Amino acid sequence: MTKFLKATALGMLGLLFFSSCQEEPQFESYLFAYFVGNGPGQEAIHYALSDDGFNYYALNGNQPIVDSKSISTSGGVRDPHILRGEDGLFYMVVTDLYVPEMGWQNTAMVLLKSADLINWTHTVLDIPQLYPENFGEVNRVWAPQTIYDEVEVKYMVYWSMRHNQDKDIIYYAYTNDDFTALVSEPKQLLFKDGACIDGDIVKKDGKFHFFFKNEDEGAKGILKAVSDKINEGYVVGEEYVDQTDAQVEGSGTFQLINSNKYILMYDMYTTGKYQFCESTDLENFEVIDEEVSMNFHPRHGSVIPITREEKQALLEKWGGIEGGVLTVNGEGVKSNNVVVDEQAATIYIPVSDEADISSFEPDFELVPWVSVDAKGAKDFTQGSVSYQFADGSGNEKAYEVSLSQDNNPVVTGYYADPEIIYSEKEKKYYLYPTSDGFTSWSGYYFEAFSSTDLVHWKNEGVILDLKKDVSWTDRNAWAPTAIERKMDGAYKYFYYFTAAQKIGVAVADSPAGPFVDSGQPLIDYKPTEDITWGQEIDPDVFADPVSGKHYLYWGNGYLAAAELNEDMVSIQSSTLKVMTPDKTYREGTEVFYRKGKYYFLWSEDDTRSPNYKVRYATSDSPMGPLDIPADNIVIQKDESQDIHATGHNSVIQIPGKDEWYIVYHRFTRPKGPSMGRSAGYHREVCIDELKFDEEGAIIQVTPTLKGIKAIN
Description:
CATH topology of the largest domain: Tachylectin-2, Chain A
Strand content: 35-45%
Number of domains: 3
Structural class: mainly beta
Family: Belongs to the glycosyl hydrolase 43 family.
Distance between the termini: 95 Å
InterPro entries: Glyco_hydro_43, Glyco_hydro_beta-prop_sf, Glycosyl_Hydrlase_43_Enz
Number of helices: 7
Protein name: Family 43 glycosylhydrolase
Oligomer: single chain
Largest sheet: 5 strands, mixed
Low-confidence stretches: 1-21
Strand order of the largest sheet: 20-3-2-1-21
CATH architecture of the largest domain: 5 Propeller
Keywords: Carbohydrate metabolism, Glycosidase, Hydrolase, Polysaccharide degradation, Signal, Xylan degradation
Radius of gyration: 29 Å
CATH superfamily of the largest domain: Glycosyl hydrolase domain, family 43
Shape: globular
Mean pLDDT: 95
C-alpha cells in the first residue's frame, strides 16, 4: 500500500471513529475573534458573541481574553483565526507582532489549541530560526489561517511572508498532530504577479475559494482564486470581490447557520469600519451593512458558529455585568457621552436642559445577557438613583445612576473645527463645522446649525456637498469659515472651505444656504517659494472694523494672510504675507478684534493628540507684527474632567456687549482617550465663556461639561 493510500485509509477510519463517537454539533450562535488596533495594548485577542451572525456584542468588556505577552515573543498578537477541528478541538493562529515597537516587520506566528475556547495552549514558530537556510532573511510573517486537508489528513497553516524587501507571498505548511510544530518547510501556495497577503480559504461544492488582499502597486482590494485542490493550482480571478472603494484587508468568510448564505467580511482599515457582504455562490456579493451592528471596532478577525453550551461557557467566563451597559437613551439624553464607571459602580447620564429630571425614565441599552430592574420614571432632582443589574449566570450588581444637565457638546453627533457667526439679517447665530466621524478626515459635505441662544441648535441640513456641488474635487471637506456682508443693499454670505487640501469659496443669499461654489480653488499654492511644508487648509475670514477691509488667513505649519478683493472671492496677491507666530503654530487660525487689539488664535499639536490646544498672540494691525504673551494658552485639556484635545476654535461676541464665547472641539467623551488616534476623527463641538483681564490678556479657559447658559 502506498503512503498516500495508507494515509487516506487511516484518515477515513479516523473520521468514521470520530463520527461514531460524537454527534454533529448543533450550532446556535457565533463567536467573533478580533483585535482592536495598532496602538499600545491593542494587539490582543478579543471575543464577541452574536445570535444571528449580524449583531455582535463584545465579551469581557471588550478587553483581551488572553494576555498577549504570555503567548508571544513580541508582546502583541493580531489577526486571530479560529478553526473548529475535525477532532472537536479548536485551533487558533495569530500574528506575533507588536507594531508600536516593531513597525511592520516580524518573524513569528503563534499556534494555539483549546478544548473549550477558553483555555489555550500555545507554541511560537519563528520562521527564520526554524528554517535558516531558505527563510533566514524573512522579515514579515503575517495573518496565518488554518484549514483541514482531508487528503493529507493534516491541518494546513497558510500565511504571507516577505524576504528582505521582496514582495509578500502566501505560503503553506502542515502541522504535527499536536499542533505545536510544522512538519515540513513552507511552500508557496498562491502564484501571481505582485504581492499578496491575508489569505482566507473556503471550501464549497468541491472547490476551494481563496480570498486574499492584492498588494500590487495601486491595488484596490480583495481578489479571489479558485482551485480543485487545497494546496495547489489556484487560478486568480480578475474581478475584485470587495464592494467598496475604500482600502480593505483581512477578509474572513463564514456560512450562516442552517442557510445557504455566506458572509464575506473585511476590515476597511482606513475608514475605521468593518463591512459585511452576503453571497450564495461566493461569486456575487451584496453589502448588508445596515443589518450589522457591533458595540466595538474590530480589526482583522474571524467568525465561527458555536453551540448553546459553548456560548453559555463563554458567557460564564467573560459575560458578566461589567461592560453590559452600552449606553442610555431617552428624551434629551446625550447618548454618546454617557459614562459608565465599573469600578465606582456609577452611571453618569448627561441630558439637555430641557429634560425633566424630576420624572425621568432612563432607557438602558444593554448587551443581550444583561437585564435591569427599571420600571417607570424616577425623580433625579435629589441625586442619584440605584438600579439593580443582573446577568444570565445569577450575578447582580447595583449602580448609582445620576443625571446632569450638560450643554456640552452643543450639537448631537461628531463635528469639528467649528466656525460661528451672527447673522444681522436673521438675528440668529450660525454654526459651520466639519462633518466628523470619517477616518482620515474623509468627509465630503458640510452642514450648518442655527440658534437664537447659543444652546439650542437646529440642524439646517447640508449646505455644500463636494460630490454634487463642487466641480474641482469631491474629498476632504474640512474646516470652513464664513462671513455675512451687506452688498448693494442685500446680504451675501461667503463660505470659505477646505477641500482636497485646497481652499475654495462658495456664496449664498442665506446663512443656511444653499451655497454655490465659485468653480475653482481660491488658494491652491504655497504662499512663498521658501515654504515647502504644510497644507493649504483652515481658512479664517475677518472683517476689520477699523478699516472696513476684509482679510483671509490660512495655513498648516505656516500662517499666511492676504487682503480680500471687494468681490470677496479673490485676494489681492500683492498683500500676501507669511506671519507664522512661532513653532507652536500648527493650524486653525481665528482672528477677532476687541478694544483696539487684534487677537490671533491658533491650534498647537495634532488634532489626534490629547494635548491639542489653543494659543494666542495680539497685534495692532490685522497683518501683524504679532506680540506673543509669555503665558498664551487659551484652552487645553482638563484630565480631571476627562476632557481632551480642546482645539481648532472660533470666537463669537454677543452683539452690542463685551461678552465673548469660545467655540471649539474636543475628543468625544468618554470614549476618546481609549480610541487612540482615531479619536481625532470623532470630535464634538463645545462652547465656553471667554474672558479677559483688565489689560486685555485672555484668561485661560477651563473647558466644562456644563457649557454655557442660554443667552438672552
